[in-house]
Amino acid sequence: MQSLSTKESFFIGLGLSNNSNNDSSICVLDRNSRIILIDKFYYAQDIEYFFETSPYTKNSVLCVSVAYDNRMLSGKWRIHAKNYKVLGEYFKVNKDDWTNRVSKRCVDIFKKIQERDIKVIRADINQLRLSYGISPHYLQGSSIDCKNLQMSLKIKYGFYELPDNMLSFSSLQSIICAMFAMDYANNIETKEIFKVDSIPVLSRAI
Q1: Helix crossing, 107-114 with 44-53: angle to 10°?
Q2: Contact, 81 vs 98, CB < 8 A?
Q3: Distance between CA atoms of 122 and 166, rounded to whole angstroms?
Q4: Residue 1 — very low, low, confident or very high, per pLDDT cuts 50/70/90?
């Protein structure tokens, strides 16, 4: 068990999906790195309600995964170019916001949380998995990847309270984000990659 220098009591991870058709998950860790809550949501209103009513929110640090915008675009060249074109507002032709790779879902909720003097950061789940030594060896989010990731979290990071039945990928993401929230609160070395509406997206030193 690591010695914490931070005053916060809870560390919350949110594995955020880019729309309400896919599940998002919340994980809450206490100061002993024990999972005290994992819950699943679909709608932004439910996520907002959790942060307004949960007793864990008041004295916490929140880390939210970056959700990527995968809306189907019109035009084959836009679909293929979205993965490698440089982001920017200088494109004169930007139908369907095709240059935007990052979803801004729930950013208004996170800003409200910040206004309550709660630390909010964001992170890319792929970079976090790499930095924690649990990179995917299979197609990310597939059944075999989730099984492998869940066993890695149990064995490597001591989350033996995880059930034997397989958790969803968003739930596993939320655990990793909660781990990063704890590390961030304990002043681990981080680097800002970019911002999503003024909220920093941080990477963890490997």
Answers
A1: 10
A2: yes
A3: 25
A4: very low
